[in-house]
Amino acid sequence: VLAAQPDHRAALRARAEAARELADPAGARDFLARLARLLPSDDPAATETWLELGTQSLAAGKPPKRVRPG
Asked: What does the alpha-carbon distance between residue 10 and residue 5 come to, in Å, rounded to a whole number?
């Protein structure tokens, strides 16, 4: 799905969750970062996504860069 639609939100979320379950926090971080940039700040999923991005970034040993939510 992501090959054809790189901004597909559900696919990005699913890939992030799969990476997390496979103990790949760097992979989860990458997918969550892509997803977080797509979500407008008033989207109900934005807060959860940004929190998870921070968690996975720290787990990967890569503190999150300062970015602004959409």
From this structure: 11
CB atoms within 10 A of CB 30: 20
Nearest to 36 by CA among 57, 58, 61, 60: 57
Please state the pTM of the whole predicted model: 0.85
Distance, in Å, from the CA atom of 5 to the CA atom of 23, rounded to the nearest integer, reads 25
What distances in angstroms separate CA 41 from CA 26, 44, 45, 46, 48, one per listed residue? 24, 8, 9, 6, 11
Look-up of token digits 């989207």: 43
pLDDT tens string 9-66: 999 999 999 999 999 999 999 999 999 999 998 999 999 999 999 999 999 998 766 6
Q: What is the rounded CA–CA span in Å between residue 21 and residue 29?
A: 12
